[in-house]
C-alpha cells in the first residue's frame, strides 16, 4: 500500500483551484506529490495507524454553525473518516466560532510556524448525504449541528467522484445490521404515504447512511419562485429553467495596492427570458432532524435579475477554467420605452 495508480490519482487531484488564495500551510500541502503526500497524511492527519487514504479533493466548504463563511479546504477521505484541512485564518473569520473551535495554541500566531486546523468527521458518525441540484454541491450530516458540512464543489464531476469513493469506503464499515422490520397493519402501511408531497429520492446504503437526491419538485418550486420574482411577466407553464449553476460574482475592489477582485458566491439561474443571480443557503436546507426552528433566511434570495432582451453583449475571458463572463445590459430606466415610442410613432 498504496498502489501506484492511487498515488498518481491523488497527486493529480492535489491542485488548489486557481481563483482561491490559500495560506502558506495549505500551499505546502498542495505542493506535495505521491509518496510524500501519503506520508504527510499518516504522520500529521490520520488518527489510527491502519487507515488508508482513498481520495483527495480541494473544495469550498461551509459549516452549519457558521453559514456565512465559505472557506477553502483540502478534503481527505480515508477508510475511517473525512478530514477537512482548513486555512488557519478561518478561526478568526467569525466571532461565533470561539466555542466551535477549541483553540489552545494562540501563542503560535506570531511565530514562523504555520498552523492548519483539521476538522474530522468519523464515518461511523455519518448519517446522511444530501446531494444538491445538478450535483453542484453536497451536504454531509452527522449527529449534531457541529457535524454538518457542505462541500461546494461547483462541479458535477467532483461531486460524483467523491460520492462514489465515499460509498466504496462505507461498504468496508462493519456496522451492526438494522433490526428486522416489524409487520405493519394496513392503516399504518398506507396511511402515512398520503401526505400529498413527494419525498426526495433516498438511497439507503448498506452502512445505513442515507444518500438523498433532489426530485423534480425542487425544480418546480424553483421555477415558481423565479416566476414570482418576475412580477408575473411570464406565465408559469412556459417558464423553463435552462441552467442552474453555482458561480461567483466578481466585485472589483478599487483603491487597494493592486486592483484586486473579491468573489461573491451566487447561484446563477437562466430561464428562456431572464438571467437571475440568487443568494442561496446551501447548508440549512433540508432542515436537519434536530433543528428546533426554521433558518433565519429563505433558501433563495434574489440578488439581481435582468431580461435577456436587454442583454447587449457577452465578453469572454481568455483564461482557462474557471471561465470569466461579463454580461453587458442596456441600462434603460424605462424598460418599455422603445415599445411606447413605436406605438406612438405609428399612431392610430
From TrEMBL:
The lineage of its organism: Eukaryota, Metazoa, Chordata, Craniata, Vertebrata. Keywords: Cytoplasm. Residues 241-347 form the Nischarin C-terminal PH domain. It is found in: Cytoplasm. Pfam families: PH_NISCH_C, PH_PLEKHM2. Its main location: cytoplasm. One of its GO terms (biological process) is regulation of protein localization. One of its GO terms (cellular component) is endosome membrane. It comes from Chaetorhynchus papuensis. Residues 114-178 form the PLEKHM2 PH domain. InterPro entries: PH_domain-containing_M2 (IPR053015), PH_NISCH_C (IPR057714), PH_PLEKHM2 (IPR057288). This is NISCH protein. The keyword Ubl conjugation does not apply. The gene is Nisch_1. One of its GO terms (molecular function) is kinesin binding.
Amino acid at each position: 500500500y498504496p498502489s501506484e495508480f492511487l498515488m498518481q490519482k491523488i497527486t493529480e487531484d492535489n491542485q488548489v483551484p486557481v481563483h482561491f488564495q490559500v495560506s502558506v500551510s495549505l500551499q505546502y500541502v498542495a505542493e506535495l506529490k505521491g509518496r510524500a503526500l501519503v506520508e504527510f497524511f499518516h504522520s500529521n492527519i490520520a488518527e489510527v495507524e491502519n487507515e488508508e487514504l482513498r481520495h483527495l479533493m480541494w473544495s469550498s466548504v461551509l459549516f452549519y454553525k457558521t453559514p456565512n463563511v465559505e472557506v477553502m479546504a483540502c478534503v481527505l477521505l480515508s477508510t475511517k473518516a473525512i478530514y477537512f484541512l482548513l486555512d488557519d485564518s478561518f478561526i478568526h473569520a467569525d466571532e461565533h466560532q470561539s466555542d466551535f473551535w477549541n483553540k489552545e495554541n494562540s501563542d503560535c500566531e506570531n511565530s514562523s510556524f504555520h498552523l492548519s486546523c483539521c476538522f474530522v468527521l468519523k464515518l461511523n458518525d455519518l448519517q446522511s448525504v444530501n446531494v444538491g441540484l445538478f450535483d453542484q454541491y453536497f451536504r454531509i450530516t452527522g449527529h449534531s449541528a457541529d457535524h454538518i458540512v457542505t462541500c461546494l464543489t461547483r462541479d458535477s464531476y467532483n461531486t460524483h467522484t467523491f460520492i462514489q469513493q465515499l460509498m466504496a469506503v462505507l461498504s468496508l464499515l462493519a456496522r451492526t445490521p438494522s433490526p428486522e422490520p416489524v409487520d405493519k397493519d394496513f392503516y399504518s402501511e398506507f396511511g402515512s404515504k398520503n401526505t400529498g408531497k413527494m419525498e426526495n429520492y433516498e438511497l439507503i446504503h448498506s452502512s445505513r447512511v442515507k444518500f438523498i437526491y433532489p426530485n423534480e419538485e425542487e425544480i418546480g418550486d424553483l421555477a415558481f419562485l423565479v416566476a414570482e420574482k418576475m412580477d408575473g411577466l411570464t406565465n408559469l407553464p412556459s417558464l423553463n429553467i435552462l441552467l442552474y449553476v453555482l458561480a461567483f460574482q466578481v466585485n472589483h475592489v478599487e483603491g487597494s495596492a493592486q486592483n484586486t477582485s473579491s468573489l461573491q458566491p451566487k447561484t446563477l439561474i437562466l430561464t428562456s427570458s431572464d438571467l437571475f443571480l440568487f443568494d442561496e443557503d446551501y447548508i440549512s436546507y433540508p432542515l436537519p432532524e434536530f433543528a428546533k426552528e426554521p433558518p433565519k433566511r429563505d433558501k433563495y434570495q434574489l440578488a439581481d435579475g435582468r431580461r435577456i432582451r436587454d442583454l447587449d453583449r457577452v465578453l469572454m475571458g481568455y483564461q482557462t477554467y474557471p471561465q470569466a463572463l461579463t454580461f453587458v445590459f442596456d441600462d434603460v430606466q424605462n424598460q418599455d420605452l422603445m415599445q411606447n415610442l413605436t406605438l406612438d410613432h405609428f399612431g392610430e
